[in-house]
């Protein structure tokens, strides 16, 4: 709760102890989710910390998550500062993630339909066919397959085809290298700027631009010819450029058109890779999931789209539980637009803020036995995720994931298909997941599973 600064005495804000200049960077790099939980437990809902010489405020807990969605939160917080490095790197004027207020609303309106689950309505069978061809290509029987990489190709194949009309698989490595550098150096600032001088990065960025120009050409050819109902995200962005160039200038086309890959690739690939691990690691969960997916596809691939989620409650529980324990967005990053008081602590205009939205994921107050993988937490009457501010895998407030409804279907359908088609095993059987943290927390790139065969 936020109280006017003059009504109550302010509380002194504790400072997290860290190394000179490096500050908390090592602890954050080891396990950011746990680091933020520890800070919350040790220092309370507000503390100050240092990362590579830069000062930050951390606000955490359910109050912080809820604050993002309040009128006050919208007035006091903005995203610009965290994304301006990326915007400059693309030679753009702005990006959806880095604008707030009316300008943000305008961009979200342009992209809402293209990013929503409407974009895959009537196309579940097509998504399944894409997923199947990924198995044939990237998951050979008998082999140990790197899961995150396998998922990255699957996601680009799916998102490319559905959102943009083409699957640019030859660009997957370039997109990944570009995202990795930009997010690490310019957005989350966990790595030094010198890395952007690497020839490897420059080459990859040039290739992403090449992809962007191809997408512009493709959109140009389609403009005015595609019926309203068949327009995809690329068509909508290009139409906005033609019809309201002040909202979508030419300089912003590449960052907007390649946006689905920045937003969707690492997020979905890391999440689905983590789900492969959690399901294989818990045989009782695996048995329930296999039973469900076998029933789901027993009548063929032409499934009832509206009934999908209802038919796979255990898989849904496994997905939600994995997203609780392996959140890809541990905190949201914002800048204070003005002086304000949060939980009795003074925060000054211009201060950089981490909002530890994933902290409640690990709190026994909301999720009893928080480290236990329990897929039944989400069903009524328990519905533990429904406590306000407790569960935020897709973020909170005005920048809440625009692709959420699409991602939910994409993840559910992809995982249903993975477990229906492939007989996978951890190796060794008692393998414990190694994780990475930069730029997106998730399973380590060397996490592999054995493809023992096809189940169907
Ligand atoms: C596991 C899946 C995903 C997770 C957990 C996830 C999570 C998030 C989070 C936490 C944010 C908010 C960031 C912030 O407030 O700073 C966000 C924003 C966004 N996401 Fe996702 N995301 C996922 C998949 C996707 C997919 C598949 C797409 C579309 C292809 C997508 C599109 C977007 C967009 C466009 C935004 C920016 C929204 C805005 O700034 O207004 N996401 N996502």
TrEMBL record:
Binding positions (heme): 401
Cofactor: heme
SUPFAM superfamilies according to UniProt: Cytochrome P450
Leader peptide range in chain numbering: none
Heme found in the keyword field: yes
Assigned keywords, A-Z: Heme, Iron, Metal-binding, Monooxygenase, Oxidoreductase
Protein name as catalogued: Cytochrome P450
